[in-house]
Amino acid sequence: MSTLLFVATASPILYLLYVLLSRWQHAQNARKWNCGSVPSYPGDLLGINTLKEALAMDKARQVPTVTRRRVETMSARENRYTTTFQFRQLGTDVISTCDPKNVQALLATQFKDFELGQSRRNALHWLLGRGIFTADGDHWSRSRALLRPQFTRDQISDLDLEERHVQVAMKAMPVDATGWTPATDIQTIFFRLTMDTATEFLFGESVQSQAAALSNGAIPQDDFPAQFDRGQWYSAQRARFEKLYWIINNKESRAINKAVHAYVDRFVTAALNSDPEKKPTGHYVFLHGLAEATRDPNFLNEVLRLYPIVPGNRRTAVRNTTLPTGGGPAGTDPVYVKKGQPVFYSTYVMHRRPDLWGADADEFRPDRWNERKAGWEYLPFNGGPRICIGQQFALTETGYVLVRLLQRFDVIEGVGKTKEGEINMQMSLTNAPGDNVTVRLHEDASN
């Protein structure tokens, strides 16, 4: 009994001493590295308010704007434009930044000080497994090396594959006697086109979602695209719940997990059982010259600036370290980052900063790219050693699809909500329009 009493009494005291000693050591490190304090976003002790904000914005389909609103709140509190601050979410203290210098440090100049971390694996491993999107260190290097041959110049320039799927997508946009299509949700068509192309590009067999939708039941509709899309939403929710990620676990999520892995495992099994002597000796390379000649980089750059596919990301410190700026009264001192502390960076906010892009930063103006060459303030595909391995594939495919669309149609007009107003954004692991993108298209009479 006396031993239990001693343990019960001593444990809180020892824990308190440990906490005080850790704080003292961190304070010493911060002084040694000339770090200034970083302002804190207002909230409750556990950080439940920030979770509620994120969930409310998810429901309102405006998740990328959460950080922008917090920057505005902090700027008003600090009487200066505050790009770096700290907030607490379910007990986890997170540093948030939209400063290009800090982002460059996270992704490049201090790459070895940061990793994806356990929080990323907690959120994504259930759906994506252990691979390039969840791994760190040597395992990540091996995963990237395995994927790299898939994205060689010859591979991404082989637009014969894309052309076949584009032609199926075109059948989903029939015109009447006047040359106009009916009101068409073009976002759904593009989603199917992306899934059909990606599954054939990566697995060697297309899911054929577009053809199935047009077949009136003749081709069975595979649930994989919808399940994978829904699985990404669950992953985003798990990330928002930090260490309580395991709460996001229900009958639907378990069914999605089982179905997605079963779909991919089929191709893994086929590859493992294939005859290595019967690999194809070559393939037809068809780089559509018109796509190269007419692809407007200004247009694509501006779309990706205003609506980056990944509006925010984060890293975790693997050791006690610093960020270059954001601390102190003026926000110009280095910021101390403890080992294990996550740092969130918002490309969405960084891409819309008026001090970086001008007073018209929220406006769609492709001509701005005639005047500048972007640095770390523009990161549509991340940067540093973990820059998106599929960047050129995505740009090539997007340019090609746009060209084929404009070859056929000479007028595209929005219908309903698509015509005007703030664009809602459906945020999971990536960003997409939150509403149907409904348009009417007119076929060029000269075709």
Automatic annotation (TrEMBL):
UniProt keyword terms in alphabetical order: Heme, Iron, Metal-binding, Monooxygenase, Oxidoreductase
One GO MF term: heme binding
Signal peptide: none
Residues that coordinate or bind heme: C388
InterPro entries for the chain: Cyt_P450 (IPR001128), Cyt_P450_CS (IPR017972), Cyt_P450_E_CYP52_ascomycetes (IPR002974), Cyt_P450_E_CYP52_fungi (IPR047146), Cyt_P450_E_grp-II (IPR002402), Cyt_P450_sf (IPR036396)
Record Pfam families: p450 (PF00067)
Cofactors: heme
Entry-linked SUPFAM superfamilies: Cytochrome P450
Gene3D superfamilies: Cytochrome P450
Family: Belongs to the cytochrome P450 family.
Protein name according to UniProt: Phosphorylase family protein
UniProt source species: Aspergillus niger
